[in-house]
Design brief:
mainly alpha; 0% strand
């Protein structure tokens, strides 16, 4: 590669490996969806309770399962087929997202259910993240692994910006409007 292009992102892994490309695109889109879901739950809890404490308690509902399940996630990742485990955790995360959407559309005003679903989602994510990260080396040759991991990191950084920005745009839509303060 010419020297003048070395500061740009190396997208060779995306060109070279269809499996890595699918993983990267899937992770990016899933992460943006996760960011939108997180924002929606925060907004829903606030609108139900009008309590900053209740919104902050979502952090506990996320971190406790993340830490407890996360301690075992590495061992589980090493002991089972990673592709199969990624499919299982992806399906479970989809099911939790469907449950979150269903309870919102049903108009349920049950905060404990939101906390429980967030805790389940966090526990599943604690297994899902290491599984997907551990898949990268098996999808790319040694000389492309660094670039592949850099692309995964770039995707994460993009999600940190795009997810909340998109959530803000959606929330600003006339039908949703800003949160009501009481």
């Amino acid at each position: 590669m010419p020297r003048r292009f070395r500061l740009l992102v190396d997208v060779e892994p995306l060109k070279w490996s269809a499996a890595f490309r699918r993983l990267w695109v899937g992770n990016t889109l899933s992460s943006i969806g996760g960011a939108l879901t997180s924002f929606a739950v925060i907004l829903q809890i606030y609108r139900l309770t009008h309590s900053s404490f209740a919104v902050g308690a979502l952090g506990l509902a996320q971190v406790i399962p993340l830490l407890t399940v996360g301690l075992l996630a590495g061992s589980v990742t090493d002991a089972v087929d990673r592709r199969r485990l990624a499919l299982i955790t992806g399906t479970m995360q989809t099911a939790v997202s469907v449950a979150l959407a269903a309870q919102a559309f049903a108009g349920l005003r049950v905060t404990w259910l939101l906390y429980a679903l967030v805790a389940i989602q966090s526990a599943v994510a604690a297994i899902d993240w290491p599984v997907r990260a551990a898949m990268v080396p098996s999808l790319l040759p040694a000389e492309q692994r660094t670039a592949g991991l850099a692309l995964i990191r770039l995707s994460f950084q993009v999600v940190l910006v795009v997810g909340p920005a998109l959530a803000g745009v959606i929330t600003a839509a006339p039908r949703l409007g800003p949160p009501t303060l009481r």
